[in-house]
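User: Teach me something about this protein's shape.
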Amino acid sequence: MKKNFGVNTLLIGWPLLFWAAAFFLPLAAALSQGLLLPGGFAALKESSRTVSLTLFTLQQAALSTLFSVLFGLPGAYFMGRRSFPGQKNLKALATVPFVLPPILAVLGFILVFGNRGLINTLRFHISGGGAEPWKILYSLKAIIMAHVFYNFPLTMRIVGDAWRELPSSTRRAARSLGASSWKAFIHTDLPRLLPSVLTAAVMTFLFCFLSFAVILVLGGGPALSTLEVEVYRLIKQQMDFQKGGALALVESSIALSLLALYIVFQKKLSRGASDDARSSTVRAPLPLKGWSFLAGLLYLLPAFLLIAVPLASVVVNSFFVKASRQTAAELSLHHWRNLLGGTLENAKAFRPGGGVALKAVLRTAVLGAAVSVLTALTASAAAWYTVRRGGKSGRVLEGLLFIPMGVSSIILGFGFLVLVHRLPSGRFFRLAALTAAHSTMALPFACRIITGRLRQISPRIPQASRAAGAGALRSLFLVEIPMARRSLVTAAVFSFALSAGELNTTLILSPGNFTTLPLAVYRMIGAYNIHGACALGTILILISCAGFLALERAEGA
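Assistant: First, the predicted structure itself:
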């Protein structure tokens, strides 16, 4: 019993200690700047700028969520209720938002919808050179369109999976009682779909509410700024920690309140999914033919292009070079050659000699490896305790690890910045803080991956191991971890991909010469070196593909 108590203490103690040090402490440090220091929250309450920032943040998030969900629901129907060739590949492609770095979404959006992007180029040639460019960058429309591109596959994937699992018995019962097809959907299917629609909407709203790279690049300045971007400008550019902390408090309060409301309503809506429905046979998908084939083609083809074309544009443009902003692009391997031996001077052009781009790749790889190991170990301990010990303490631990999804990475980085300012050897502690911040953001996803696999392992297996004389810790390492190693590898790869694409905390915490791939891409976009950014972006796409394959492997396990 004493040994088991020690194992339980270790397995719950480490995740709690990590959560306290890597999340609660920096969050408290960030928010305290606005609450405790003069010129913080008290001064912010009297500013009309705070009200306008909050309203615009809510407005763009609400509009982005509305259009993302509306555009994703038809896809969810086709993915969940119909069968057609290539469906599995399209479903896999809908996983993109989970692993695609936001800076890549911005880069792809610029290449397709920019003033000299693909659409404007096609319009120019079709009209014979007479069409004025469609100017959409640096507007609310650009922000919403980029968010829809980035988030509508969430609704396709989440609601589509729920639609596929609807039981056949409930619909048959409704139809046998004389209900029309439409009434049967309203009274039997819709209540069971609402939890998934709510999940997709809340996740999309949080992503858009806490969006940073899209607003920073496509917003174009303070006129279209949000709470997240304004916090960054206050703490990084103006060094005003007091007002930055106060705005961080406002933003975190709204996001965490929404998360709490979601948990409450999700439980109420989920009561409609009764045990008999879960045990019933699911409905067989219908073939896509006739009018449904035409409707599916009119929807699925544009949806596929909306996801694939921006990413393909990044790859294709990496093989072009422009001598100046006014000259035409020429086919060239210039940026790929300089990736191995060039230097990034003022983020404007590669020139031989320094290898900064290659160093960015190596730094991203080393940082991602450290994050993946730390996250996998912490998530394994938390998942084992949640599954094997459960109870109130297990539910509390699971809930605590879920909270970071409602706090922005900018605020987390801000909190670490406040803490490392008080420590010597700033560079070392900044890199350690950067690793901890990335791991904190990946932890909820890694826990979910590993928990799902551990729940598939019968509790009788470790019980038999302990009955044969093995202690709890030995049973864990020799029996359960080997059986769950596939999920551990998946969680580690997924965490690596998330870390490799993370820009927000890197902008705040990285030392002056510590440039990662997304940071280099961001700087090159700002310097209008789009083709150079595409070369680095292509490497990010390859890393994202590894994360995507890891997630697919986890869900297929």
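Now, about its shape. The longest helix spans residues 2-36. The longest strand covers residues 342-345. If you'd like, I can walk through any region in more detail.
User: That's plenty for now, thanks!
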